[in-house]
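Subject: for your reference before the review

Hello V.,

The reviewers asked for a structural picture of the protein, and I figured it would be easier to keep everything in one thread rather than splitting it across files. Below is the amino acid sequence we used in the manuscript, unchanged from the supplementary table.
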Amino acid sequence: MIPAGHITRWAKNAPWPTREQVEQDLVLSRLIVEIANHPLLGDELVFRGGTCLHRLHLPTPRRYSEDLDYVRVTSSGIGPVLDALREVGDSFAAVRSHFEGPIDNPAWVGRTPPVP
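And here is what came back from the structure prediction:
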């Protein structure tokens, strides 16, 4: 669980009506960064769609989104991509459950946060 203080601070960047939406926005933001920074996924997957437009190109969020849309840039086997996604999910869950660092700091978007 993400500490309440992190969610409160992230709410300044994600003006959603419920704390659950703010927390989910924070988690999705971190997952976008983790996927982009992964050596295979960062080259293999392209973030696209309405969520991408709102998160990367608009200064203020205009709509709440619960999904992340990606497409592959190659037609090679799916196995390594699925393994890498599981790896990101597992490592993110482990870090998230023990995190005491600035997971909610917008300055970390686009960079890997310190891992305790």
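For the response letter, the relevant points are probably these. The radius of gyration is 14 Å. Helices lie at 4-10, 19-37, 41-44, 50-57, 79-98.

Happy to draft the paragraph if you're swamped.

O.
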